[in-house]
Amino acid sequence: MIEEIRKLAGEWLRTGKANAILGLKEKDGHIAPYLFTRVEELDNLVITPEYRLLNVYRPLRRNILHFMQKNHPNAKIGVVARGCDEKALIELAKRNQLDLEKIELIGVACTKDEAVACKCPKPYPRNILIGERVEGISNDSVVDSLLKKSSQERLKFWKHQLSKCIKCYGCRNACPLCFCQDCKLEQELWVKPGQLPPEIPIFHFIRFYHLADRCIECGECEKACPMDIPLLTIYRLLRKDVKELFDYEAGVDVKQEAPLVTTLDETPMRSEE
Amino acid sequence: MNRFEPKIVAFTCNWCSYAGADLAGVSRIQYPPNIRIIRLMCSGRLEPEIVVKSLLYGADGVLVLGCHIGDCHYITGNHRTKKRIAILKRILSYLGIDPHRVRIDWVSAAEGAKFAQVVTEFTEEIRKLGPILKEVNS
Protein backbone atom coordinates (compact mmCIF):
# COMPACT_ATOMS: atom_id res chain seq x y z
CA MET A 1 0.00 0.00 0.00
CA ILE A 2 2.73 2.45 0.99
CA GLU A 3 4.69 1.60 -2.15
CA GLU A 4 1.66 2.51 -4.27
CA ILE A 5 1.35 5.85 -2.50
CA ARG A 6 5.04 6.63 -3.02
CA LYS A 7 4.78 5.69 -6.69
CA LEU A 8 1.72 7.86 -7.23
CA ALA A 9 3.22 10.78 -5.32
CA GLY A 10 6.42 10.49 -7.37
CA GLU A 11 4.39 10.51 -10.55
CA TRP A 12 2.53 13.65 -9.49
CA LEU A 13 5.78 15.43 -8.63
CA ARG A 14 7.43 14.41 -11.89
CA THR A 15 4.52 15.34 -14.16
CA GLY A 16 3.90 18.58 -12.30
CA LYS A 17 0.38 17.65 -11.23
CA ALA A 18 1.58 18.74 -7.80
CA ASN A 19 4.52 20.95 -6.91
CA ALA A 20 4.67 19.52 -3.42
CA ILE A 21 3.14 16.63 -1.52
CA LEU A 22 2.09 16.93 2.09
CA GLY A 23 2.48 13.67 3.94
CA LEU A 24 4.03 12.07 6.96
CA LYS A 25 7.78 11.65 6.98
CA GLU A 26 9.75 9.21 9.05
CA LYS A 27 13.14 10.34 10.23
CA ASP A 28 15.19 8.55 12.88
CA GLY A 29 12.08 6.77 14.10
CA HIS A 30 10.05 9.95 14.48
CA ILE A 31 6.97 10.81 12.46
CA ALA A 32 6.00 14.35 11.47
CA PRO A 33 4.11 16.09 8.68
CA TYR A 34 6.44 17.09 5.87
CA LEU A 35 6.17 18.79 2.54
CA PHE A 36 7.86 16.60 -0.05
CA THR A 37 9.17 18.49 -3.05
CA ARG A 38 11.75 16.07 -4.47
CA VAL A 39 11.09 12.57 -5.73
CA GLU A 40 14.13 11.08 -3.89
CA GLU A 41 12.69 12.10 -0.54
CA LEU A 42 9.57 10.05 -1.05
CA ASP A 43 11.28 6.92 0.29
CA ASN A 44 10.64 8.35 3.74
CA LEU A 45 6.94 8.92 3.12
CA VAL A 46 4.87 6.80 5.49
CA ILE A 47 1.25 6.53 6.61
CA THR A 48 1.73 4.49 9.77
CA PRO A 49 1.99 4.87 12.70
CA GLU A 50 -0.87 7.31 12.55
CA TYR A 51 -0.07 10.89 13.31
CA ARG A 52 -2.11 14.00 12.75
CA LEU A 53 -1.28 15.40 9.35
CA LEU A 54 -3.11 18.71 9.56
CA ASN A 55 -1.36 20.15 12.56
CA VAL A 56 -2.22 23.66 13.62
CA TYR A 57 0.95 25.65 14.15
CA ARG A 58 0.14 26.92 17.65
CA PRO A 59 1.99 30.24 17.99
CA LEU A 60 0.16 31.60 14.96
CA ARG A 61 -2.85 29.27 15.15
CA ARG A 62 -2.65 28.50 11.49
CA ASN A 63 -2.50 25.37 9.42
CA ILE A 64 0.69 24.49 7.58
CA LEU A 65 -1.23 24.63 4.29
CA HIS A 66 -2.31 28.17 5.10
CA PHE A 67 1.31 29.35 5.07
CA MET A 68 2.07 27.43 1.93
CA GLN A 69 -0.82 28.97 0.06
CA LYS A 70 -0.07 32.43 1.39
CA ASN A 71 3.57 32.36 0.29
CA HIS A 72 3.03 30.43 -2.93
CA PRO A 73 -0.45 31.32 -4.15
CA ASN A 74 -0.09 29.36 -7.38
CA ALA A 75 1.47 26.21 -5.95
CA LYS A 76 -0.39 22.98 -6.50
CA ILE A 77 -0.24 20.84 -3.41
CA GLY A 78 -0.97 17.15 -3.16
CA VAL A 79 -2.09 15.80 0.18
CA VAL A 80 -1.94 12.18 1.24
CA ALA A 81 -5.34 12.12 2.88
CA ARG A 82 -7.24 9.52 4.82
CA GLY A 83 -10.98 9.94 5.33
CA CYS A 84 -10.54 12.09 8.43
CA ASP A 85 -7.90 14.30 6.79
CA GLU A 86 -10.25 14.99 3.92
CA LYS A 87 -13.05 15.98 6.29
CA ALA A 88 -10.67 18.27 8.15
CA LEU A 89 -9.58 19.90 4.88
CA ILE A 90 -13.19 20.54 3.87
CA GLU A 91 -14.04 22.02 7.24
CA LEU A 92 -10.91 24.21 7.21
CA ALA A 93 -11.68 25.45 3.70
CA LYS A 94 -15.20 26.32 4.82
CA ARG A 95 -13.75 28.46 7.56
CA ASN A 96 -11.33 30.30 5.26
CA GLN A 97 -8.21 28.58 6.51
CA LEU A 98 -7.14 27.27 3.13
CA ASP A 99 -8.12 27.09 -0.51
CA LEU A 100 -9.24 23.64 -1.61
CA GLU A 101 -9.08 24.45 -5.32
CA LYS A 102 -5.31 24.28 -5.43
CA ILE A 103 -5.22 21.05 -3.45
CA GLU A 104 -5.28 17.58 -4.96
CA LEU A 105 -5.91 14.62 -2.72
CA ILE A 106 -4.23 11.24 -2.78
CA GLY A 107 -7.16 9.49 -1.14
CA VAL A 108 -6.14 6.57 1.03
CA ALA A 109 -8.75 4.18 2.39
CA CYS A 110 -7.99 2.79 5.84
CA THR A 111 -7.87 -0.94 6.46
CA LYS A 112 -10.46 -2.74 8.54
CA ASP A 113 -8.09 -2.97 11.52
CA GLU A 114 -7.40 0.75 11.45
CA ALA A 115 -11.11 1.51 11.22
CA VAL A 116 -11.80 -0.70 14.21
CA ALA A 117 -8.97 0.85 16.21
CA CYS A 118 -10.37 4.36 15.61
CA LYS A 119 -14.02 3.24 15.79
CA CYS A 120 -14.25 5.35 12.65
CA PRO A 121 -17.68 5.67 11.02
CA LYS A 122 -16.25 6.62 7.61
CA PRO A 123 -12.70 5.33 7.13
CA TYR A 124 -12.35 6.38 3.49
CA PRO A 125 -12.20 9.62 1.49
CA ARG A 126 -14.68 10.38 -1.29
CA ASN A 127 -12.23 9.65 -4.07
CA ILE A 128 -10.23 6.56 -3.18
CA LEU A 129 -6.99 6.25 -5.14
CA ILE A 130 -5.21 3.77 -2.90
CA GLY A 131 -6.63 0.89 -0.91
CA GLU A 132 -10.00 -0.77 -0.64
CA ARG A 133 -13.10 0.76 0.82
CA VAL A 134 -14.20 -0.93 4.05
CA GLU A 135 -17.38 -0.20 5.93
CA GLY A 136 -17.14 2.05 8.97
CA ILE A 137 -17.92 1.18 12.56
CA SER A 138 -21.25 2.64 13.52
CA ASN A 139 -21.53 1.80 17.19
CA ASP A 140 -19.42 2.95 20.09
CA SER A 141 -19.73 1.04 23.36
CA VAL A 142 -18.94 4.10 25.52
CA VAL A 143 -21.67 6.11 23.79
CA ASP A 144 -24.18 3.31 24.25
CA SER A 145 -23.38 2.87 27.91
CA LEU A 146 -23.58 6.63 28.51
CA LEU A 147 -27.02 6.80 26.93
CA LYS A 148 -28.24 4.00 29.17
CA LYS A 149 -27.18 5.88 32.29
CA SER A 150 -29.52 8.06 34.31
CA SER A 151 -28.81 11.75 34.77
CA GLN A 152 -27.23 11.13 38.18
CA GLU A 153 -25.00 8.37 36.86
CA ARG A 154 -23.88 10.49 33.92
CA LEU A 155 -22.89 13.27 36.26
CA LYS A 156 -20.96 10.84 38.42
CA PHE A 157 -19.29 9.34 35.35
CA TRP A 158 -18.14 12.69 34.00
CA LYS A 159 -17.08 13.97 37.39
CA HIS A 160 -14.81 10.98 37.69
CA GLN A 161 -13.51 11.26 34.13
CA LEU A 162 -13.00 15.02 34.06
CA SER A 163 -11.34 15.08 37.49
CA LYS A 164 -8.48 13.17 35.86
CA CYS A 165 -7.73 16.16 33.60
CA ILE A 166 -4.25 17.59 34.08
CA LYS A 167 -4.99 20.58 31.84
CA CYS A 168 -2.23 19.78 29.39
CA TYR A 169 -4.27 21.31 26.54
CA GLY A 170 -3.40 18.23 24.52
CA CYS A 171 -6.95 17.88 23.25
CA ARG A 172 -6.98 21.41 21.96
CA ASN A 173 -3.50 21.26 20.49
CA ALA A 174 -4.18 18.03 18.66
CA CYS A 175 -7.44 19.27 17.17
CA PRO A 176 -7.12 20.18 13.49
CA LEU A 177 -10.09 22.54 13.83
CA CYS A 178 -9.09 24.49 16.94
CA PHE A 179 -7.59 27.52 15.26
CA CYS A 180 -9.16 30.51 17.07
CA GLN A 181 -6.71 33.34 17.55
CA ASP A 182 -8.09 34.07 21.02
CA CYS A 183 -8.73 30.77 22.72
CA LYS A 184 -11.25 30.88 25.53
CA LEU A 185 -9.33 28.20 27.36
CA GLU A 186 -6.52 30.69 27.83
CA GLN A 187 -8.69 33.42 29.28
CA GLU A 188 -8.68 33.84 33.05
CA LEU A 189 -12.37 34.65 33.07
CA TRP A 190 -13.16 31.08 32.08
CA VAL A 191 -10.19 29.01 33.14
CA LYS A 192 -8.42 29.97 36.31
CA PRO A 193 -4.64 29.63 36.04
CA GLY A 194 -3.03 27.17 38.41
CA GLN A 195 -6.17 25.26 39.26
CA LEU A 196 -6.06 21.50 38.89
CA PRO A 197 -8.18 19.78 37.77
CA PRO A 198 -9.77 22.65 35.86
CA GLU A 199 -13.27 23.59 36.89
CA ILE A 200 -15.68 20.77 36.06
CA PRO A 201 -17.24 20.92 33.55
CA ILE A 202 -16.46 24.43 32.25
CA PHE A 203 -13.08 23.64 30.72
CA HIS A 204 -14.35 20.69 28.74
CA PHE A 205 -17.72 22.24 28.12
CA ILE A 206 -16.06 25.10 26.25
CA ARG A 207 -14.43 22.65 23.89
CA PHE A 208 -17.56 20.51 23.53
CA TYR A 209 -19.65 23.51 22.67
CA HIS A 210 -17.17 25.22 20.37
CA LEU A 211 -16.69 22.06 18.33
CA ALA A 212 -20.35 21.08 18.24
CA ASP A 213 -20.78 22.05 14.60
CA ARG A 214 -17.25 21.53 13.42
CA CYS A 215 -16.08 18.26 14.96
CA ILE A 216 -15.23 15.74 12.26
CA GLU A 217 -14.84 12.83 14.66
CA CYS A 218 -11.18 12.23 13.86
CA GLY A 219 -10.54 11.31 17.48
CA GLU A 220 -7.22 13.16 17.77
CA CYS A 221 -8.30 14.76 21.08
CA GLU A 222 -8.96 11.41 22.65
CA LYS A 223 -5.74 9.92 21.29
CA ALA A 224 -3.77 12.90 22.59
CA CYS A 225 -5.28 12.76 26.07
CA PRO A 226 -2.69 11.36 28.49
CA MET A 227 -5.37 10.64 31.08
CA ASP A 228 -7.63 8.65 28.72
CA ILE A 229 -10.72 10.79 29.12
CA PRO A 230 -13.34 9.52 26.63
CA LEU A 231 -13.81 12.94 25.02
CA LEU A 232 -14.96 11.61 21.69
CA THR A 233 -18.11 10.21 23.30
CA ILE A 234 -19.72 13.62 23.54
CA TYR A 235 -18.50 14.75 20.13
CA ARG A 236 -20.05 11.68 18.54
CA LEU A 237 -23.36 12.40 20.24
CA LEU A 238 -23.20 16.06 19.26
CA ARG A 239 -22.51 15.24 15.65
CA LYS A 240 -25.66 13.15 15.69
CA ASP A 241 -27.58 15.99 17.34
CA VAL A 242 -26.39 18.60 14.85
CA LYS A 243 -27.45 16.28 12.05
CA GLU A 244 -30.83 15.86 13.71
CA LEU A 245 -31.38 19.54 14.50
CA PHE A 246 -29.95 21.24 11.44
CA ASP A 247 -29.50 18.45 8.89
CA TYR A 248 -25.83 19.35 8.80
CA GLU A 249 -22.70 17.25 8.88
CA ALA A 250 -19.28 18.75 9.35
CA GLY A 251 -16.67 17.88 6.75
CA VAL A 252 -19.01 16.78 3.99
CA ASP A 253 -19.79 19.76 1.77
CA VAL A 254 -17.68 22.92 1.46
CA LYS A 255 -20.68 24.94 0.34
CA GLN A 256 -22.87 24.06 3.30
CA GLU A 257 -22.38 26.72 5.95
CA ALA A 258 -22.00 25.86 9.62
CA PRO A 259 -25.43 26.07 11.32
CA LEU A 260 -24.31 27.95 14.42
CA VAL A 261 -23.10 30.95 12.43
CA THR A 262 -26.11 31.23 10.14
CA THR A 263 -29.62 32.48 10.84
CA LEU A 264 -32.76 30.41 11.11
CA ASP A 265 -33.74 31.46 7.59
CA GLU A 266 -30.51 30.07 6.16
CA THR A 267 -30.37 26.91 8.27
CA PRO A 268 -33.73 26.23 9.88
CA MET A 269 -34.06 24.08 12.94
CA ARG A 270 -35.90 20.86 12.30
CA SER A 271 -37.31 20.09 15.72
CA GLU A 272 -38.61 22.52 18.28
CA GLU A 273 -37.04 22.28 21.70
CA MET B 1 -42.08 23.53 56.80
CA ASN B 2 -39.56 25.44 54.77
CA ARG B 3 -40.31 25.49 51.12
CA PHE B 4 -37.36 25.36 48.74
CA GLU B 5 -36.97 28.78 47.14
CA PRO B 6 -34.97 28.40 43.92
CA LYS B 7 -32.53 30.99 42.74
CA ILE B 8 -33.11 31.77 39.10
CA VAL B 9 -30.97 33.90 36.83
CA ALA B 10 -32.91 35.48 33.99
CA PHE B 11 -31.05 36.92 31.03
CA THR B 12 -33.28 39.34 29.21
CA CYS B 13 -32.66 41.41 26.14
CA ASN B 14 -32.76 45.17 26.45
CA TRP B 15 -35.34 45.82 23.75
CA CYS B 16 -38.14 43.34 24.33
CA SER B 17 -37.96 41.17 27.42
CA TYR B 18 -36.51 43.74 29.79
CA ALA B 19 -39.20 46.16 28.72
CA GLY B 20 -41.70 43.33 29.14
CA ALA B 21 -40.48 42.81 32.70
CA ASP B 22 -40.79 46.54 33.24
CA LEU B 23 -44.35 46.47 31.97
CA ALA B 24 -45.17 43.59 34.32
CA GLY B 25 -43.86 45.74 37.16
CA VAL B 26 -45.66 48.90 36.11
CA SER B 27 -48.89 46.96 35.63
CA ARG B 28 -48.42 45.47 39.13
CA ILE B 29 -48.67 41.89 37.94
CA GLN B 30 -47.63 39.44 40.64
CA TYR B 31 -44.82 36.98 39.95
CA PRO B 32 -42.41 35.03 42.18
CA PRO B 33 -39.46 37.01 43.52
CA ASN B 34 -37.03 34.17 42.76
CA ILE B 35 -35.56 35.63 39.61
CA ARG B 36 -32.54 37.87 39.32
CA ILE B 37 -32.63 39.71 36.05
CA ILE B 38 -29.49 40.43 34.10
CA ARG B 39 -30.01 42.75 31.18
CA LEU B 40 -28.15 42.11 27.97
CA MET B 41 -28.34 44.22 24.85
CA CYS B 42 -29.46 41.14 22.92
CA SER B 43 -30.14 37.54 23.87
CA GLY B 44 -27.57 36.71 21.18
CA ARG B 45 -24.94 38.14 23.50
CA LEU B 46 -25.40 35.22 25.85
CA GLU B 47 -22.55 32.78 25.60
CA PRO B 48 -23.56 29.25 26.59
CA GLU B 49 -20.54 29.22 28.91
CA ILE B 50 -22.27 31.87 31.01
CA VAL B 51 -25.28 29.64 31.45
CA VAL B 52 -23.14 26.71 32.57
CA LYS B 53 -21.16 28.91 34.90
CA SER B 54 -24.36 30.29 36.44
CA LEU B 55 -25.58 26.77 37.11
CA LEU B 56 -22.22 25.80 38.54
CA TYR B 57 -22.13 28.73 40.92
CA GLY B 58 -25.50 28.06 42.47
CA ALA B 59 -28.24 29.21 40.14
CA ASP B 60 -30.91 26.53 40.23
CA GLY B 61 -32.27 27.55 36.87
CA VAL B 62 -31.44 29.88 34.00
CA LEU B 63 -34.12 31.66 32.05
CA VAL B 64 -33.22 33.18 28.70
CA LEU B 65 -35.70 35.68 27.33
CA GLY B 66 -35.47 37.48 24.01
CA CYS B 67 -37.57 39.13 21.35
CA HIS B 68 -39.86 36.98 19.25
CA ILE B 69 -38.17 35.48 16.18
CA GLY B 70 -38.33 38.11 13.47
CA ASP B 71 -38.64 41.01 15.92
CA CYS B 72 -35.03 41.14 17.07
CA HIS B 73 -33.65 44.66 17.33
CA TYR B 74 -30.49 43.34 15.70
CA ILE B 75 -32.45 41.44 13.02
CA THR B 76 -31.11 37.92 13.66
CA GLY B 77 -29.56 37.95 17.14
CA ASN B 78 -32.16 35.67 18.65
CA HIS B 79 -31.85 33.16 15.81
CA ARG B 80 -28.41 32.35 17.14
CA THR B 81 -29.62 32.20 20.72
CA LYS B 82 -32.19 29.63 19.78
CA LYS B 83 -29.63 27.41 18.06
CA ARG B 84 -27.05 27.78 20.79
CA ILE B 85 -29.44 26.94 23.59
CA ALA B 86 -30.61 23.84 21.71
CA ILE B 87 -27.01 22.59 21.51
CA LEU B 88 -26.32 23.65 25.08
CA LYS B 89 -29.26 21.64 26.39
CA ARG B 90 -28.04 18.53 24.63
CA ILE B 91 -24.56 18.89 26.12
CA LEU B 92 -26.01 19.46 29.59
CA SER B 93 -28.09 16.30 29.34
CA TYR B 94 -25.01 14.26 28.33
CA LEU B 95 -23.04 15.71 31.22
CA GLY B 96 -25.82 14.73 33.61
CA ILE B 97 -27.35 18.13 34.38
CA ASP B 98 -31.10 18.28 33.83
CA PRO B 99 -31.64 20.35 30.65
CA HIS B 100 -34.98 21.54 32.04
CA ARG B 101 -33.02 23.88 34.27
CA VAL B 102 -32.50 26.05 31.21
CA ARG B 103 -35.47 27.55 29.47
CA ILE B 104 -35.63 29.83 26.48
CA ASP B 105 -38.71 31.86 25.68
CA TRP B 106 -39.73 34.95 23.78
CA VAL B 107 -41.35 37.92 25.51
CA SER B 108 -42.06 41.17 23.70
CA ALA B 109 -42.19 44.62 25.26
CA ALA B 110 -46.01 44.49 25.25
CA GLU B 111 -46.25 41.13 26.99
CA GLY B 112 -46.00 41.96 30.69
CA ALA B 113 -48.53 39.27 31.49
CA LYS B 114 -46.61 36.66 29.53
CA PHE B 115 -43.42 37.60 31.35
CA ALA B 116 -45.11 36.99 34.70
CA GLN B 117 -46.57 33.73 33.45
CA VAL B 118 -43.23 32.41 32.15
CA VAL B 119 -41.48 33.30 35.39
CA THR B 120 -44.20 31.66 37.50
CA GLU B 121 -44.15 28.48 35.44
CA PHE B 122 -40.40 28.24 35.43
CA THR B 123 -40.09 28.87 39.16
CA GLU B 124 -42.54 26.08 39.88
CA GLU B 125 -40.68 23.73 37.54
CA ILE B 126 -37.34 24.43 39.22
CA ARG B 127 -38.92 24.10 42.64
CA LYS B 128 -39.89 20.56 41.67
CA LEU B 129 -36.39 19.79 40.35
CA GLY B 130 -34.78 20.84 43.63
CA PRO B 131 -31.52 22.59 44.38
CA ILE B 132 -28.78 22.23 41.79
CA LEU B 133 -25.91 21.94 44.24
CA LYS B 134 -27.48 18.79 45.62
CA GLU B 135 -27.47 17.39 42.10
CA VAL B 136 -23.95 18.47 41.25
CA ASN B 137 -22.32 17.56 44.58
CA SER B 138 -23.96 14.18 45.08
Please provide the ordered H/E string of secondary-structure elements of chain B: EHEHEHEHH
* Oligomeric description of these chains: heterodimer
Mean residue pLDDT of chain B: 94
Main sheet characteristics of chain B: 4 strands, parallel
The SS-based structural class of chain B is alpha/beta
* Greatest interface: A-B, 37 and 28 residues
Low-pLDDT ranges of chain B: none
State the low-pLDDT regions of chain A, or none. Answer: none
Question: What does the overall shape of chain B look like?
Answer: flat
Outline of chain A = globular
Task: Write out key terms for the chains shown.
heterodimer, A: 273 residues, five-stranded mixed sheet, 10 helices, B: 138 residues, four-stranded parallel sheet
Could you explain how this protein is built, in words?
The complex is a heterodimer of chains A (273) and B (138). Chain A has helices spanning 2-15, 64-71, 83-94, 112-118, 141-148, 151-162, 170-174, 202-210, 220-224, 232-246; strands at residues 20-27, 30-36, 45-46, 56-57, 62-63, 77-81, 103-107. By secondary structure, chain A is α/β, with parallel strands linked by helices. The relative contact order of chain A is 0.11. The mean pLDDT of chain A is 92. Chain B has helices at 17-26, 48-56, 77-95, 112-129, 132-137; strands at 8-13, 35-40, 61-66, 102-106. The longest helix of chain B has 19 residues, at 77-95. Classes of the chains: A alpha/beta (273), B alpha/beta (138).
Briefly summarize what is shown.
The complex is a heterodimer of chains A (273) and B (138). By secondary structure, chain A is of the alpha/beta class.
